[in-house]
Amino acid sequence: MSLAYYFMTKDGTLPRRNYQAEVVDSFCPQSTFKDLQSHSQNLPSRKVCLVDDRTNDGINSISLGDYGPLTAQKLYLKLKEKRFHDRDEHSPEPPNSVSPSSRESPLPLDADRRLVFITDIDRYAVAALMATAPLSQVTALGDTLYMHLAFKAYIGASIQTRGFPFFSLSFHLPYFAWRSTTPQEQPRDNRLNRAGHPVRKVIDVSFLTSGVTPQITFKQGDYLCEAQMSVLVLGPDDCRWTGLCLVDTYFDSEDQRECVDKYHADVPDGIQSDPFTEGIFDVHLPILDPREYFLAVLDCRAKVFMEEWKHSADKLAHRIDGYIAEHPFISKHSTSPPGTELRPFLSCIGQTRQHLREFIECLRAPIRHWDDFKHRERFRTAAECRYISSIQETFVAAGHCLNQLESLCKRCDDLAKYLALCMNDEGSRGMKLQARLTQYNHTLTHVFLYFCFPPILAAGMLSMHEEAIPGVLGPAKQSFIVLTIFLTTLVFIIVGFMQRWRDILLFVYDLVGTERIKIFAGKLTSPGGHDEDIELGGRLQ
Question: Where are the transmembrane segments (predicted)?
Answer without folding.
Answer: 440-460, 480-498
